[in-house]
# Entry
Amino acid sequence: MYIHVNNDEADRILVDPAFKMEKMKEAHEKVYAFQTAYQLVDEQFKQLTYQQKTPVGRDIYESWYSIEKSINKFDRIFNKVEKFDARAMTDPINHERRERRLRDRKRERWVSNYTFFFGNLTEEEQQYRDYFETDLEADPEDDWIDEKLDDMHIANQGQFNPALYDFVDYTQTHDAHESYDDVIEQKLFKYKYRQFAVDHPTYERRALRVRDRMLERAKTRDPILEQNLGDLLASDARDNSLATLALEPERFREVAKEETRPFREYMVSEAVQQYRDYYESDGEEQQFFEYLDNVPNRDKIRFMEIFEDYTVDPTDQKQYVTIEKREYNPELSVLSNMVLDLVDFKDRVRPLSNDIAMLEQANKYQK
# Structure
């Protein structure tokens, strides 16, 4: 931008400071006005410009999301491995004490006991936890919380906003067309990736509304939903067995299938209600709510996919239990001790392991 100045004004600028300040002020005002006008025109132009959406398949979108989550998880695991490998240098004063604790617990798990790990825990990760035990007590690590933070990070990037993409069907040989998925599948897809479709304050407000209302309804739900799942599975193992069928056929019944029917019905109704609560203030979903009242049960069952129970602890359940090994008898031969170990494993350790596995799975859904 140019400011026209004649010869007389140029001479006066050189000798008159007040005149120079006046001309500078005039120039700044014109530059500011020009910049403001440019910004207004640019914003109006963006509103008028047609935003071309990127065509992509829903399966590709979901795979992309899974890859991003896997990369973040891999980075955390890689950092832990690097930290563990360099443990001797990071804290040399306490290294010997921590290393001794690690070796003692590892020997206890594998020499004198059978060890059963919960929650996808591995021996390598347990060694990491044993060595950095005091650090983890002060600053706990939890995969569930880390994944929630990953979702927040991905949402802040904005690249997973569904509004940026035109979801099409790539199964056709020629020319991709609009996806022919049914309405229920589209709504489930929209709900699963709802965090990426709105700003963080809006998502937090809606998510808290869903959680609070679900917890309020849980106060008056069927008491059968609160039963101990471990006891339920134990009853099923007893009454739904060939032995019961042969000896006491009148007691034979599918306990797990019958007793968990209220669970399944509750999951369907609660999942539909959670969808309603989240989109309660969304005008676009009001028409779908009317349709949702009349959908067949087969379609409502599909909403179980988005069900989330806030009365279940979602944090890591990583731990381990040990089953003591049979004591070695030095008066017998090696072969005899080996045979006794096999018998002990079959008659004692294996049934206990089955019970432990049953409890592990039950704890994931225990209210």
